[in-house]
Amino acid sequence: MIQKVSNRFSYLNALICQCATGCPKELATRLGITERAWYKLRDELIHDLGVPIAYDPQRQTYYYTEDGELLFQFRRRLTNDDMQKLEGGHGYSFLASLNW
User: Fold this and answer.
1) pLDDT higher than threshold 70 for residue 98
2) The whole model's pTM is what?
3) Could you give the CA distance from residue 3 to residue 82 in angstroms, rounded to a whole number?
4) What confidence category does residue 46 fall into, taking pLDDT thresholds of 50, 70 and 90?
5) What are phi and psi of 84, to 5 degrees?
6) In degrees to the nearest 10, what's the CA dihedral of 49, 37, 29, 57?
């Protein structure tokens, strides 16, 4: 079941990123859920998780109103020992380049 949910989120993200969701009914069919279930999921994503999703009725597609992506995953936190082993590059400051 978890794999099915993960796949559904990945597919939903891909469709939204490509602006290829179709109307709500078409999207629900693509996700293998009812239109009512899609609206419930959409509301939970927006209101509970703060996912910035909007619908464009002229293009008949959902899109993200902010740059980003929807992920369904577990991320391990690095321990202090792991953090000490990391090496990084040098950052570039735009303001520093302007001598501000």
Assistant:
1) no
2) 0.71
3) 29
4) very high
5) -70, -25
6) -60
